[in-house]
Specification:
about 35% helix; 2 domains; about 325 residues; nine-stranded mixed sheet; Dihydrodipicolinate Reductase, domain 2; six-stranded parallel sheet; binds NADPH dihydro-nicotinamide-adenine-dinucleotide phosphate
């Protein structure tokens, strides 16, 4: 499969180009950048044959089967609609869009056109999260009573830019990290958060956008979820916990792009270390995307998953602003 990159981004150069090239018979043919010099440098540095500043030119290439969209968040909607109209399969970065209506439009357009559309939620591809899901779904902790997500990190200097000061580009910790946590909780519990309460603010980094948020979600099963996302925590470390009637799962350093961390389960028989596989998260995600294009299975996170993670993040932001409980609106999905 031959790919076009929409966006000369760090996530593309840092992870996705390698993940695409790790697939059989697959390569990146071109890249789109709004800046011709940056696009040319990006193409040269990453061994990509062509760079463009015009999306229609990139999409007009009949050799391109799929596009990976990793521009800033406010651009995803229009670029995805153009790619879908051109008949390309789309892997889009999170959050899918700035509004729920835009995300729904993207997913519906892909469905009507018959192209594969996926959301790049990497965490559900991690060996650690696959092992946790297996523990929960096999009943090892009984009925799940609650979950806690620890996702307060120290945003690296090179990633600060628009994330910490540009609301119009989709900056802020809620669109950046809450979407991942929403997807991860949905993945593990197989249900969608129903209501949320939240508090958000700045703790030294956000300039016009929130850099920290804590929220509590209720699940239809009755389980409660507590999450903490931040850009400003140098030493907190990440993690996730699930507490059930028969046991508790503790995972540390697993809310990350790397295949690392540790998991243990505590129940009446004691503490048990849980082994897990250490494959590359993005390579697995790309593999499932390629299989879906070939007609086998589904992407690891599809368009509806992207709509739902965005819906939870939007509800968290609304709840934080309003100071009251908000029902999550999934736009009919
Ligand atoms: P970047 O800031 O690296 O890139 C976003 C845009 O900024 C690019 O499209 C590019 O514009 C422009 N840009 C890139 N480098 C420079 C530079 N040196 N100077 C000026 N402009 C520059 O964003 P990220 O890679 O961090 O994020 C891109 C998207 O991917 C976002 O939607 C984000 O939420 C998502 N993401 C997802 C991750 C995941 O694991 N799923 C991880 C990280 C990000 P142009 O294309 O016009 O050249």
């Amino acid at each position: 499969m031959r790919w076009g990159l929409v966006g000369a981004s760090r996530i593309a150069s840092g992870y996705m180009i390698d993940a695409i090239r790790a697939q059989e018979s697959s390569d990146v043919l071109s890249v789109l950048s709004s800046n011709s010099a940056r696009g040319e440098t990006f193409a040269r540095d990453n061994n990509i044959a062509a760079s463009h500043t015009d999306l229609d030119t990139l999409l007009a290439d009949p050799d391109i089967d799929a596009v990976y969209i990793s521009t800033t968040n406010e651009k995803h909607h229009a670029q995805a609609l153009a790619a879908i109209a051109a008949g390309k399969h789309v892997l889009c970065e999170k959050p899918l869009a700035m509004t729920l209506a835009d995300a729904v439009e993207m997913v519906r357009a892909a469905s009507e056109k018959g192209v594969v559309f996926a959301t790049n939620h990497h965490l559900r591809n991690a060996g650690s999260h696959l092992a946790i899901k297996q523990l929960i779904s096999s009943g090892r902790i009984g009925k799940v009573l609650s979950a806690r997500v620890f996702h307060a990190v120290n945003l690296p200097e090179h990633l600060r830019g628009w994330r910490i000061n540009d609301a119009a580009a989709g900056g802020g910790v809620i669109p950046d990290i809450v979407v991942h946590d929403a997807d991860t909780i949905r993945f593990h519990l197989d249900e969608d958060p129903a209501t949320v309460v939240a508090q958000a603010g700045t703790s030294g980094m956000g300039d016009g956008v929130e850099d920290s948020v804590m929220s509590v979600w209720t699940m239809p099963s009755g389980a409660m979820v507590q999450t903490h996302e931040s850009f400003t925590h140098k030493f907190a470390g990440s993690g996730i916990e699930f507490h059930g009637t028969e046991g508790s799962i503790f995972a540390r350093n697993v809310m990350t792009q790397q295949p690392v961390g540790e998991i243990w389960l505590t129940d009446e028989t004691g503490r048990h270390e849980i082994p897990f596989e250490s494959h590359n998260l993005y390579v697995r995600s790309l593999g499932l995307f390629h299989a879906a294009v070939a007609g086998s299975g589904r992407p690891s996170a599809d368009g509806v998953d992207g709509i739902k993670s965005l819906a939870v993040a939007l509800a968290v932001r609304t709840a934080a602003k309003a100071g009251k409980s908000v029902d999550v609106d999934y736009g009919g999905f």
